[in-house]
Amino acid sequence: MEELNVGLGDRSYPILIGSSLLLKSAEHLSRVSFPRRVALISNETVAPLYEGEVRKSLEDAGYNVTTILLPDGEAYKTLASLEIIYDALIKENFDRSTGLIALGGGVIGDIVGFAAATYLRGIPFAQIPTTLLAQVDSSVGGKTAVNHPLGKNLIGAFYQPQIVLIDVATLKTLPARELSAGLAEVVKYGVIKDRSFFDWLVQQGEDLLNLSSETLIAAVKRSCQIKANVVEVDEKESSIRAILNYGHTFGHAVEMLSGYGNYRHGEAVAIGMVAAADISRRLGRCSSQDVEAVRDLLVSFHLPVLPPSFPLDDYLHAMGRDKKVQEGRLRLVLNCGLGDCSIETVAEPDRLFGDLLEHWPVTGVA
Fold first, then answer.
1. Which one of 245, 255, 264, 267 is the catalytic residue?
2. What's the domain range around 143?
3. DSSP 210-276
């Protein structure tokens, strides 16, 4: 088992990474003095696979466990799903001495984290992410949220978990499309922060797709370490943390315009990363070879790299609601070569994205 730490003073917490860790869920939660009465919250897809395993570990150790199930999918990352959690907690008389456990992908993690942040003004929660995307990104760093029909993740809070328990064995039941979606976020870390990691991904791509435990643990550990380092400096995204949104501005627009769930989050981010790389090239921040390297690695992981065909004005309108907009001006994360990046205010997004879409092949709407 590998262990990292997110250093945030009295809100610091461990990230445990390994294989078959769910069998000892109770032991790991006990390390951080997690409450003994818990709500184990999952969805209708993940629960049949792993809820019983986690519940047994907890109950054998004397935990009192209530299970709450939500529908599966990005389309259910809503206030309505949040209400399902609140209703169950209130009916079961959960108080401030209780805790929540998120067992599932990024949607479950985000909803449960927001529920924990807001129920009784805040109770503890733990992350047990079961998708690669959640393991390398959304489970770490304390961003919690639900979507609004007019924009993604617009309703939420920064609220840190007490522990993140990452079991890469759960990836063996992950559909291939979801594995690829998670690899998009892994590639992101190499592009923005670590050229050697990017090159390692090129070399280890086949092992990752073949679910080699050793390779997966190494990829997850490096991804989480990069994210933890950034979060420790800028927990609430007032400065450097925004670099973690590389590819997300255009990617979130793809998700929203296509209807949440038609593109997986990682798929949309892959499209957004190629867009960001191409704009970086146009602004002289990287070379054509760098753009091709990003595109080729994403394609090798079976990810889409072409945008759905929506009008420029629709894309601009969607990006205008992005959380990185300041005083009405769009800011983009741009890669500087490979392994470094910058955050820049875009003076003429209509011209930049207009040129991009005009010369960039598009797909039909997914």
1. 245
2. 2-172
3. TT-HHHHHHHHHHHHHHHHHHHHH-TT-SSGGGGGGTTHHHHHHHHHHH-TTSS-HHHHHHHHHHHH
